[in-house]
Amino acid sequence: MCIRDRSEIAARLHRDEGDVKTIATKFSGEPHALLQFLEEEKNEYTPDPHTEIAYQILNELDSANSYTNNITQLHQYHTETISDAVEQFESTETTIAHAYSRPHPSLGGVSYGAKFAKELSEIGLIDKGKAILEIGGGTGYLARDFLKYLKDNKPRTYKHIHYTMLELSPVLIKSQKEQTALHCPVISHVTGDALAAPFSSGTFSLIIANEMIADLPSVRMKKEWVDNGSADQIPRESLPALKFIKNFNIPVDDAFPEFLVNLGAWQMMEKIYHLLSHGGTAVIIEYGSPCMYPVAVHLKEHTEYSIHFGHLEKIANKLGFETRLEGLADFLKMDPDVQVLNSASFGTLNQSILPHFNMKPLPTLSFTPEMLGEFLGDLYHNLHNLQFHPLKEAAGPGNPSAFYALTLFKREAQPS
Q1: What single DSSP character describes residue 91?
Q2: Residue 234's closest CA among 246, 222, 248?
Q3: The pTM is what?
Q4: Fewer CB within 10 Å: C terminus or N terminus of the chain?
């Protein structure tokens, strides 16, 4: 499809031409370079590799326009609504940690939690005496396998660390305790909110926030509020975000007139800086983009928001962190060529084929052909047209392509 000018784009998107100009400016220049403008039309057909960007742009607009304040509901959801830890991540909000909770070829034959520990250990971030905090640990699978890896491979380090889990949901705390029961001497569990963590300054030398900051509140902003808004014009929940934008010089020139910001994640950056000791490190993993504004992800009974990692980096640098942002697959050194089952085949198996044979559904894992064969037994060899793709191209359960790892390094204290 050829679109000749901004007015045609605006007409097709049912948007103002000024919005289209904002998009074009943002995505045709550095660092994104996702759009290209030509002096004349090219006649040959070339498949468009950036279709998802168009959906993302529309989602940005629609997420801001349809936003409703759900800060109170989010807290209530995690404290009262979650009723089954495993089912929560099987069907409601499947995480990468859950999809790779069993040993996987793309992770070198170990689980997500073990690979996490291995990579951090190999770059010297887990040493004797480390005080580790995991915020929002889900089922506890990551912590269980993280600690098992250290116990089996770094026993001296294991004996001298202490691993603290901070969790808001009573149901998830129970699961975390059960999963990590074998590590009682080196682990403790604390009930609390990530943004009001009940610890003293400099308590921890390593903080892990794996796939949880999308659960923190996002709020709507308007450019007119940033430019000349007064406090009586701005909703109360958005005032802290305006303060962040002003104090941290967060650039929003490329935003639409109405846009969302990850206020809870911004506030958490300050909390992490407070909790980390000098020389300490934090690792934040979540889905999002280095440049796209938050988009609503509507799940069962609650809504999450993707993360604008460019804004997080800006705040982190201003706080005094050194930062490194990379794709999750690069952070974990995942093998991009391992073949995994795609979403369409996964859905067909669970919704049609397995019920026909009175078989239990597949767990929500990233299945390789070997893993699927082991699970299905003789049936596997009688199935045809199942689709497997290299991990780097996959869109199945546990697709890491939309996830990023932001590593924060707090500088050593300066001698007085």
Answers
A1: I
A2: 222
A3: 0.86
A4: C
